[in-house]
Amino acid sequence: MHSPESPYIGRFAPSPTGPLHIGSLIGALASFLDARAHGGQWLLRMENIDPPREIAGSDERILNTLRRHGLNWDGPALEQSTRSEAYDAALQQLLSSGNAFRCSCSRRQLARFGGIHRGACVASVNEEDCAIRLAVPDEIWEAHDLLQAPLRQNLLQEVGDFTLRRRDGYYAYQLAVVVDDAYQGINHVVRGSDLWVSTPRQRLLQARLALPTPTYLHFPVIVGSDGHKLSKQTFAAAIDDSCACDNLLLALRFLGQDLPPRAQQSSVERILNHAVDHWHRQQLPAVMGLPESAFYD
Ligand SMILES: [Zn+2]
Q1: From ligand 1's centre to the CA of 2, what distance in Å?
Q2: Is the distance from CB of 254 to CB of 234 less than 8 angstroms?
Q3: Is the pTM here over 0.70, yes or no?
Q4: Distance between alpha carbon 123 and the CA centroid of its chain, in Å?
């Protein structure tokens, strides 16, 4: 439990790569409920640092879907596209402390090493055409979670010197998320288990930048019958904003939470009020993934 000196600050951080689907609504709802049930703030961050993957108009559509579901965030949304200076400052700090390096190794050259960059570069550095990587130590990094078992990774062996800024000049997710969580004062990260595996990388980066580590809670994500993909027609499809109550009830059921009495099920506000009052982390399914079939009674 957080201390009174550091009030709970949580967030939801969608990418504008398309409209929200039920999986992303579950993420929004879980982080919202955990924040509100602890009297915390719930901030919004638009992770728009990868223009080639973004779809015009998605950001407004996402915000509208959140509003229609009563998921109202505190303060203005932070746009990652406005944060280049902060990312550059973090890169500069890492480069000058020797914790990051410029690298012009190609994917093809790294293929010989299983695509993993470990230590010395195989190509000579071309300052005009290079990525920036974190120098990863050959040691175990551990991540802790309120729901999942601790995760121990030898980052150099399993991941390698990971990218902070890509060769095409775009900033990597790992850098932006760590810099912005700290900037927004986020001390509780509630997100899907698909991001659990990148948490030790974020821990290392937080340590290198002398930033605090938030408390993590990774809830299971929905997996399709093949273990990965969701079926397009149901769970990967865009959310229908006109059935907000049904969507919220479906998401609550997935999160193992108690549903409000039937008489309260036709109002977004009542559903959310009930859900905040009855939010129990210990009822979340403590697994990494739940099959789509878990939704059907
Ligand atoms: Zn290299």
Answers
A1: 41
A2: no
A3: yes
A4: 33
Residues 175, 50 contacting (CB under 8 angstroms): no
Query: Cα of 125 to ligand 1 centre, how many Å?
Result: 8
DSSP string, 106-160: -HHHHHTTTT---SS-SS---TTS-EEEE---SSEEEE--SSSPPEEEEHHHHT-
pLDDT for the residue numbered 233? 57
Q: What residues does each domain of the chain span?
A: 9-82+220-295, 84-142+149-171
Quote the ligand 1 centre to 117 CA distance (angstroms).
Answer: 6
Cα(123) to centroid(ligand 1), Å: 6
Could you report the per-residue pLDDT of 146-158, keeping only the tens digit for each? 999 999 999 999 9
With a cut of 70, which residues of the chain have pLDDT below it? 1-5, 225-235, 294-297
The CATH architecture of the domain made up of 84-142+149-171 is Alpha-Beta Complex (3.90)
Interval 106-142: pLDDT, tens: 999 999 999 999 999 999 999 999 999 999 999 999 9
In the reported structure, the alpha carbon of residue 67 is separated from the centroid of ligand 1 by a whole-number distance in angstroms of 45
Q: Which CATH superfamily is domain 9-82+220-295 in?
A: HUPs (3.40.50.620)
The Cα angle at residue 241 between residues 8 and 248, in degrees rounded to 5: 50
Cβ neighbour number for residue 121 with a 10 Å cutoff: 17
Query: How far is the centre of ligand 1, averaged over its atoms, from the C-alpha of 267 (Å)?
Result: 55
Cα of 71 vs centre of ligand 1, distance in Å, is: 43
Closest CA relative to residue 136, chosen from 111, 112, 154: 154
